[in-house]
Amino acid sequence: MVRKTLQWIQSDLARPEEQLAVLGDPARVPAGRFAGQLESIGAGPLRRDCLQIVQINVGRVCNQTCTHCHVDAGPDRKESMTRETAEAILEFLARSTASTLDITGGAPEMNPNFRFLVQQARAMGRNVIDRCNLTILLAPRYESLADFLAAHQVAVVASLPCYLEENCDAQRGTGVFAKSIEALKRLNNLGYGREGSGLELHLVYNPVGLGLPPDQQRLEHDYKQQLADRFGIVFNRLFTITNMPISRFLEDLLAQGQYETYMQKLIDHFNPATLDNLMCRSMISVDWQGFVYDCDFNQMLDLPIPAGGRPHISELTESALVGLPIATANHCFGCTSGCGSSCQGSLT
Ligand code: SF4
Ligand code: SF4
User: Fold this and answer.
1) What is the CATH number of the domain that holds 53?
2) Of 15, 20, 58, 315, whose CB count within 10 A is highest?
């Protein structure tokens, strides 16, 4: 029952006219506040530019169950992209000018079509990103995964919310830090993160508590120093990402009575300088069934691109996307707060 209520709240979060009224005093976190904020500075509505990245969420199956997970992923989830949908995505990629296929999940490598997608996209000359949780590289039956990624020059973007074991395990589960370090060493041994190898390894930080991410450059410096000194690990860049007030993190905020405090913090730190670089301007997000959204967060809130109906990748044309308004709601404060947040880290 609690879960059902939370899902209902989440779905309402996507609708500016109704959202948040159920969560307490709406005057403190007014409904439709994000749209109003854009309007007040003459910046709304947000619109799409040229398409650069096709991000696909191949399903919610994962070997982990992290507390902040905005996908609500885990080992018991059944949602998983079929070969037919994977082929429809590749057909779209072939007829588009997008330079990059960005594969996420769950643990995307657990999808049976993961290697097919990588091989086909690379054969088209597109860049491929694997959003990897690191521990999957050590899981039984995935021993050859790291070699496969290196052989196809797949860029690895890996979550490591802290360089301290205690903080990392608190968010991602006991023992995850030690496994992540082992996986990073395996990637480094293949050349990942090393200058001149052409194998990119980027790490992702997101706050363990209710704070906003600190300065990305400074934190990257600390990460590099700590990981090199303690474990001999190297990597290319650190991406700092804000926790989005949706899904499992939203449930946590509600359970702790912290939802309104967190939203207010995001609103208080709204930064107009983030708007030009928002990832939703230049990417689409495709779900495991092939339906298209402006970003992975909108996908989780079932808020499709406003192109009429529920657009499917098999029917989509790239030209129809340019100039289209972006579907926004109050969770967009998560991307526009402080230094901003995206799948490529901070925006300013
Ligand atoms: S955050 Fe990533 S690794 Fe953790 S449960 Fe979600 S999809 Fe899996
Ligand atoms: S959540 Fe972020 S990326 Fe998604 S539509 Fe809102 S501002 Fe854009």
Assistant:
1) 3.20.20.70
2) 58
Q: Is residue 285 part of a domain?
A: yes
**Residue minimizing CA distance to atom 3 of ligand 2:** 280
Cα separation of 246 and 334, whole Å?
10
Q: Is 37 in the pocket of ligand 2 (CB under 6 A)?
A: no
Q: How far is CA 139 from CA 8, 62, 162, 218, in A?
A: 35, 11, 21, 33
- Cα-to-centroid distance, 168 and ligand 1 (Å): 13
CA gap 211, 293 in Å, rounded? 27
| pLDDT tens figures, 200-253 | 999 999 887 789 999 999 999 999 999 999 999 999 999 999 999 888 888 888
In angstroms, how far apart are the furthest CA atoms of the chain?
55
Dihedral over Cα of 20, 23, 27, 29: its sign: negative
Indicate the pTM of the whole model.
0.90
Whether 23 is covered by a domain: the verdict is: no
**For ligand 2, is residue 331 a contact (CB within 6 Å)?**
yes
Q: Which ligand is nearest to the CA of 247?
A: 1
Ligand nearest to the CA of 244: 2
272 falls within a domain: yes
Ligand 2 atom having least distance to the Cα of 327? 5
Using the CB atoms, write b or e for 29-42: b if 16+ within 10 Å. bbbbbbbebbeeee
Assess if residue 345 is contained within a domain: no
- Nearest residue to 128 (alpha-carbon basis) of 109, 111, 152: 152
Instruction: Domain count for the chain, please give it.
Output: 1
Which domain does 269 fall in, by range?
45-336
